[in-house]
Write a structure and sequence with these properties.
F-box_dom; disordered N terminus; F-box-like_dom_sf; alpha/beta; 15 strands; three-stranded parallel β-sheet; F-box domain-containing protein; elongated; single chain
Length: 621
């Protein structure tokens, strides 16, 4: 084996002019190692190295907003960032020389990134993280683009069109004739697909909010952008240097709303990538059950046998058991699965079945999952079946579960809550210690009074064992907590009076030396895994419930939901009868509808002056 020095030394016999060309054309991943291998090469390639470091600072993490940081960035910060001081004092000169480039403000949109790639194609190879999600309304509609940028993008589109597998001549002609590039039209969808087809080293991808429209899951025919993307992904499977071949992580991009059209179908093309290991998504739907009245279905792509996902986190989603089966039956390597359920429009009229949902996951991934979290953000109806056993999860180490998952007759009983007239025999329910597999070391049980206050009932010595909570904890009084098979933590957003009710259950059971219990003041309003999700990716906008407000005087809402139903929709949370318009201090309400506003808007909300609202403004975008 030759040492690094033996491989480099023959280069030093070459003329300096030729060495300059070699460093200029070196790939950005090898450039620093090459230039730092000896002082001669460093001096020859100094100018190229300065440009390389400036490009890396500017283009490595490209996002429309800085509020979301990846784990990789955080790790680099803790380790001191990029290794930009490997050669001692000379680096101070390098930094000063590149300051005018690296200190420039980050580009405002994908148009600027595409223009930069058209000017220098090496820019594309520097992009490691591309996050196109934004909550800024400026990027959701019209983005000002200079004529020079517009012409550069048109040249790039014209060159790239020769490599696309579909004929887009009509779209390209229309695109070339436009004088405006907007954030929500078809041309931008084509440009986003074009951008993805140019990035060979991207590892982390955050899709734009209009991805649901670009994918066209609601169309009768597949959009051209989907055909291009599928061709790019097919090529990425064949070679490690192809665009998207290194993609490892997908970030969430959809706002969590009731009136939703997002589907797991939107992400399905990426499941064919062999390096895709992590999926973080929000607001996804996959309702394949026959009882759905307005289903948004998901079917696994036929051209993909299995995917390599090892970690999946789905927040604010509505997925039934047949829908989740389509996903987890093709993820044989899955080790980490987290899911929070939120009722969507398509789910109205039938209940969610957590018993079947958990059973499906256990059947396909029980021998690989080490972490499982299933929580509930909002549930319109009681569960049809509850979780009765988790012994299928033979590798499970840590679980975070919502107490409402257990509030229903077990599947093996052959009954559903609907068949039992809304109630069920709680004698079916086993104690938590008997449901868990022996591998479990830590359990967090999430208690949310907003879901179902009646679940806890009026606790007395005679009735406590008949409550769900009482039966779940019925084995704790006989458990030696110093040698407990698992560490049980109860987390909650309960108000103090309800938290006292929970503690009273323990007293009624005679439990004194119980495991750790955490109250509202220590945990906030979300389960732990959801808190970490928000901390990492930022707050995905969610439905605005009156109880979450501190009496704002002015409120502006932009939604796809029909404004005529806002008053009803935003008071759907159980035990909330106050409509949105009746917030105590609310004086000004601005409602914007992402679509078309028919008529003069007279039926879209309250009359000015009602509920104390003095000023009402309606608009459509």
């Amino acid at each position: 084996m030759h040492s690094e020095e033996e491989r480099i030394m023959p280069l030093l016999n070459l003329p300096a002019e030729l060495l300059v060309h070699i460093t200029t054309f070196a790939t950005h991943t090898d450039l620093e190692n090459l230039c730092l291998s000896c002082r001669t090469l460093y001096e020859v390639g100094k100018e190229t190295l300065v440009r390389h470091r400036a490009y890396k600072r500017r283009w490595r993490y490209f996002r429309l907003e800085d509020r979301r940081r990846t784990v990789e960035e955080s790790d680099e910060d803790s380790e001191g960032g990029d290794d930009e001081t490997e050669d001692g004092g000379d680096d101070a000169d390098d930094d000063s020389e590149s300051e005018d480039i690296s200190s420039q403000q980050a580009p405002d949109s994908i148009f600027h990134l595409l223009a930069a790639i058209e000017k220098d194609s090496t820019v594309a190879s520097y992009v490691d993280t591309l996050d196109l999600w934004t909550d800024d309304q400026r990027f959701r509609h019209s983005v000002p683009v200079s004529r020079a940028t517009r012409e550069a993008i048109k040249r790039l589109v014209a060159r790239s069109a020769f490599t696309w597998p579909v004929d887009l001549s009509d779209q390209i002609d229309a695109f070339h004739q436009t004088d405006e590039m907007t954030g929500a039209d078809g041309s931008t969808g084509m440009l986003i697909t074009l951008l993805l087809s140019l990035l060979p080293n991207i590892r982390v991808l955050g899709l734009p909010w209009i991805w649901w429209d670009i994918m066209g899951s609601w169309r009768d025919e597949a959009p051209a952008g989907l055909e291009i993307l599928e061709a790019v992904i097919t090529r990425a499977k064949e070679t490690t240097d192809a665009p998207l071949s290194k993609l490892r992580t997908l970030l969430p991009y959809a706002s969590i709303i009731f009136d939703s059209d997002n589907s797991l179908f939107e992400l399905s093309p990426f499941f064919n990538l062999k390096n895709l290991h992590e999926l973080y998504a929000s607001n996804m739907q996959a309702e394949n059950g026959e009882e759905c009245m307005m289903p948004i279905t998901f079917h696994w792509p036929q051209e993909v046998e299995m995917c390599c996902l090892r970690k999946i986190e789905l927040i604010g989603c509505s997925i039934d058991a047949p829908g989740i089966e389509e996903l987890v039956s093709h993820t044989p390597l899955l080790e980490h699965f987290a899911y929070s359920h939120t009722t969507k429009r398509s789910e109205v009229g039938h209940g969610w079945n957590p018993g079947e949902f958990v059973a499906v996951i256990g059947a396909y991934c029980g021998n690989t999952l080490t972490f499982l979290a299933i929580t509930i953000q909002d549930l319109a109806d009681r569960p049809e079946n509850g979780v009765a056993s988790m012994h299928e999860f033979t590798a499970l180490i840590e679980a975070e579960l919502d107490i409402d998952l257990f509030d229903g007759p077990p599947i093996w009983s052959g009954r559903t809550r609907r068949e039992d007239g809304g109630d069920w025999d709680r004698s079916y329910l086993e104690a938590l210690v008997g449901m868990m597999p022996p591998s479990v070391e830590k359990i967090k049980l999430w208690v949310n009074v907003q879901h179902n206050v009646a679940l806890y009932g009026r606790v007395t010595k005679g009735a406590s064992s008949r409550t769900v909570l009482g039966r779940l904890l019925s084995g704790l009084e006989d458990m030696d907590t110093s040698a407990a098979p698992f560490d049980l933590t109860i987390t909650s957003d309960l108000a103090p009076k309800y938290w006292r009710t929970v503690l009273k259950v323990l007293d009624c059971l005679g439990v004194r030396d119980y495991p750790r219990w955490v109250g509202k003041n220590e945990t906030g309003r979300k389960p732990e895994w959801e808190e970490k999700f928000v901390e990492r990716f930022g707050h995905m906008p969610t439905p605005i419930w009156p109880s979450d407000f501190h009496s704002p005087r002015k409120l502006s809402i932009c939604t796809r939901t029909d404004l005529r139903h806002l008053g009803e929709f935003y008071s759907m949370r159980p035990d909330e009868t106050t409509p949105l318009f009746a917030l105590p201090q609310l004086k000004e309400l601005n409602l914007s509808f992402l679509g078309y506003l028919d008529g003069d808007g007279e039926d879209f909300g309250p009359e000015p002056g009602s509920y104390g609202v003095e000023k009402l403004r309606l608009s459509s975008r």
